[in-house]
Amino acid sequence: MVPLLVVLLFALLLFGAGFALKGLWWIAIIVLVLWLLGFVVRPAGSGGRRGRWYRW
């Protein structure tokens, strides 16, 4: 009985990790798209030069 519970718990853990990792992949893709869009639509800086869209 204990090995069956361990296997079921392990399967549940792997299912949860897979769902979380899939969600993290979607978040990473969205952040990458926003980051790339930032280079395309960045505002013009002083002197007509294209400035940075971030503040670091």
Please describe what this structure looks like:
By secondary structure, the protein is an all-alpha fold. The longest helix is centred in the middle third of the chain and has 39 residues, at 2-40. The mean pLDDT is 76. Helix content is 70%, strand content 0%. The protein is rod-shaped and about 65 Å long.
Key phrases:
1 helix; 56 residues; mainly alpha
Distance between the termini: 57 Å
Q: Could you list the spans in which at least 5 consecutive residues all have pLDDT below 50? A: none
Mean pLDDT: 76
Helix run count? 1
Q: Note the beta-strand portion.
A: under 5%
Overall geometry comes to rod-shaped
Sheet with most strands: none
The helical percent reads 55-70%
Q: Report the strand count.
A: 0
Helix and strand content put the structural class at: mainly alpha
Topology:
Blueprint: H1 2-40
State the gist of this model.
The chain has 56 residues and is mostly helical. It has one helix at residues 2-40.
